[in-house]
Model the fold of this input.
Amino acid sequence: MDYDHLEPTDGGLKLIGVRNFKPKHIFECGQCFRWDMVNEGRYLGIVRGKVLEVSEEDTGIFLHNVNEEDFRTVFEDYFDLKREYGPIKEELSKDPLLKESVEFGHGIRILNQEPFETLISFIISANNGIPRIKAAVAKIAEKWGTPISYNGRTYHAFPSPLQLSKASEADLRGIGIGFRAKYVARTVRAVYEAECIERESLTRKLTDDEALSLEQSLDRIASLPHKLCHDALQCFEGVGPKVADCIMLFSMGKQEAFPVDVWVKKAMSFFYKAPEMSLPMTREFGQDKFGRLSGFAQQYLFYNARENKVKVE
Done:
């Protein structure tokens, strides 16, 4: 584990002996869209229907509005705290070119997010900037999600497939996600239908068409091996190779995924002098180079490249 134990505090918990955990690195490395900085070193997020604040203080890392049961059932896994990142960083740092990025983003942890929220969020992310993605995801939650009260304010959980199935394509266009509204509406419907059929399968034999629809169950897709999982996710409209890799890495435990966007492509060219390649070729190059640790390498490279705005000559 990457922490020693918990210490109760007024309204939360302190992580004692926590390692490889820096809120800025975790919440600003492009993997999540429901965390906002409320002041320096303090972030507020909505995770699985709960508001959580995380602060980095002189005396350590604090989790606010959480008890030990919440931590054990949700947040220990969410923050990937059972995994020791020291050996991962040590292994990746054997590559002197990657070592710089590992040191720059030393506090990154890959979050284990909820698959449906991650799927919809990254469909919205296509050809979009992070502030606009965050605004769109927040609007979806506000319009269709369950309200949550915290410190006198109302926040909203990300809606379930059932809740979001009530949104039409026109409704989704109305919150400003443009051409992606069609993809989101159709994907929500597919996921919701798969969930319904999954429940039906417990009590009766499915028809061939129902069995086919069941293939779009996110639980089933997450259980598939890497290549099959990657292919299955691309059956959803609006999900291409890069978005599929993001969903796999950030919500399905596939750490060998290597999402490639413009920043990762620049990073591979800048640090590795990789020849001009397409995004799929860059993805293959990265996976061949970093193997089972590809996802961790990708996060360190992305964060370094974007924060330092690397430029390729």
Summary: Residues 262-307 form a domain with the Endonuclease Iii, domain 2 fold (CATH 1.10.1670.10). Residues 84 and 286 are 23 Å apart (CA to CA). Residues 180-200 form the longest helix (21 residues). The mean pLDDT is 93.
